Amino acid sequence: MQFRIEHFSEVDSTNDVAKRLAIEGAPEGTVVISEIQKKGRGRKGREWFSPKGGVWMSIILRPKMSPSQAAPLTLIAGLAVAKTLSELYNLKCKLKWPNDVLINEKKVCGVLTEISAGIDRIDYIVAGIGINANIDIDSFPGEFRGVATTIKNELNKEILRDELVEQLLEEFEKLYKIFQKQGFSKLKEEWKKSASTIGRKVRIITDRRTIEGIARDLGENGELFVETQEGIEKIISGDCIHL
Ligand code: BT5
């Protein structure tokens, strides 16, 4: 994949810029990076704190697969971040289903994947990745401080963000190629090895209901299998709270 980086000093959300570029025809591998996001977004319209010092980026993808097969890309982006932070800084990251990268149970990275597709063809996917790199944890708003961590906070020093981005794109590309050629099964095992969610007691909140149980496994499409008192439930999307 040929990566082409579009660098901005300030945008509302890199996902929004990437979507606009994708609609205008930007090729796969276009990467939008901004120093600051004024309206960084989490899932379901939640706020993503995005001050200077972080890595706020969105990758445009155009995989040739059906929209229903693309769900694991969120997990794959998280896995790429975890591998990169381990390779570059020896940080031990754990993956929380579906879209968080944790260090000691605190969130260092979140992924927001957005898709535009027809019934059986993907037009584009924007994989948004937010990494708390060179940010002081004390600068986080009170309501997020307890759930978040930053690379600077973990290492007690600042890192070279260019190096982080370069290595992350390389890592992501490797995993993306495996995914396109072989599907998710091999990567699923790799994700599970770094998972913090599997084997845990969890509360899952979906649009329709809330369930509790033990997270047992991942499905072929990145779904989470949760064992409840009623039996095994397959969760396609939702929020997961580790209990
Ligand atoms: C996410 O949502 O974790 C997805 C975050 C994706 C951010 C990237 S940055 C580049 C691209 N452009 C965007 O606009 N977004 C993407 P969710 O699972 O819904 O988690 C959101 C929750 O995480 C918030 O409600 C807070 O509790 C917490 N939070 C907010 N900012 C955070 C931060 N910087 N670090 C850690 N946790 C944070």
What does the main sheet amount to?
Answer: 7 strands, mixed
What does the average pLDDT come to? 97
Distance between the termini: 40 Å
Residue ranges: pLDDT <50 for 5 or more in a row? none
Describe the global form: globular
Short descriptors:
243 residues, alpha+beta, BirA Bifunctional Protein, domain 2, SH3 type barrels, 2 domains, seven-stranded mixed beta sheet, five-stranded antiparallel beta sheet, 28% helix, globular
Quick take:
With 243 residues, the chain is an alpha+beta fold. It has helices at residues 14-23, 73-89, 142-145, 151-155, 161-182, 185-193, and strands at 4-11, 30-37, 55-61, 94-96, 100-103, 106-117, 122-131, 201-205, 210-218, 224-228, 231-235, 239-242.
Describe it for me?
The protein has 243 residues and is α+β, with helices and mostly antiparallel strands. It is built from six helices and twelve strands. A seven-stranded mixed sheet has the order 1-2-3-7-6-5-4, sandwiched between helices. A five-stranded antiparallel sheet has the order 11-10-9-8-12, with no helix packed on it. The chain is globular, with a radius of gyration of 17 Å. Bound molecules: biotinyl-5-AMP (BT5). Biotinyl-5-AMP (BT5) binds next to helix 1, strand 3, strand 6 and strand 7.
Write the layout of secondary structure elements.
Blueprint: E1 4-11, H1 14-23, E2 30-37, E3 55-61, H2 73-89, E4 94-96, E5 100-103, E6 106-117, E7 122-131, H3 142-145, H4 151-155, H5 161-182, H6 185-193, E8 201-205, E9 210-218, E10 224-228, E11 231-235, E12 239-242
Parallel strand pairs: 1-2
Antiparallel strand pairs: 2-3, 3-7, 4-5, 5-6, 6-7, 8-9, 8-12, 9-10, 10-11
The structure holds biotinyl-5-AMP.
